[in-house]
Amino acid sequence: MTMSRIATALTLAGVAFVFWFGTGYLFDPQSMATGFGLPAWPTGEAEAFLNIKGVRDVVTGLVLLTLLVLGQRYALGITMAVMALIPLGDGLTIVRWDGDLTAAITIHWATMAAMLVAAALLLLEHRTATTKSTTPAPVTA
């Protein structure tokens, strides 16, 4: 049961963070962008790209929250494992463009690690439940 609670807590924390970041990029993109880790950001009309990041983050949170609320924990585990590619890619982009390595590691790759831990717990939870349901009852004479 503890594994399930940890997986749920990690999922909810992740959802809260991506909602916070996402709405920040939608409503105040320039102030949010400074903490991302890249050395420069689009300005003027190109600033719209920051809103795209906001939409991506909010939708990511909605997908995870929907699967959690619907009780689709196995699908949630798979989805989180796949979506962990987003912060991996963000961190790699920061490194590629000579951004802040500390931000790449402590923000993006730490997020990826937390997502992978939650995904592993959710998938392990499913495996444990499946094993218990398919184990035959002991035969007594």
Taking the sheet with the most strands, its summary is: none
Approximately how much helix is present in the residues? over 70%
Radius of gyration: 19 Å
- Going by helix content, strand content and strand pairing, the class is mainly alpha
Number of strands: 0
Weakly predicted, low-confidence segments: none
Average pLDDT across residues?
90
What this model shows, in words?
This protein is mainly alpha-helical. The protein has one domain. Helices cover about 80% and strands about 0% of the residues. It is built from 6 helices and no strands. Helix 1 runs antiparallel to helix 6 (about 100-135) and helix 4 runs antiparallel to helix 6. The two termini are about 30 Å apart. The model has no long low-confidence stretch (mean pLDDT about 90). InterPro entries: DUF4267. It comes from Nocardia acididurans. It holds the Pfam family DUF4267.
Summarize the structure in short.
This is DUF4267 domain-containing protein. The chain is mainly α. The protein is 78% helix and 0% strand.
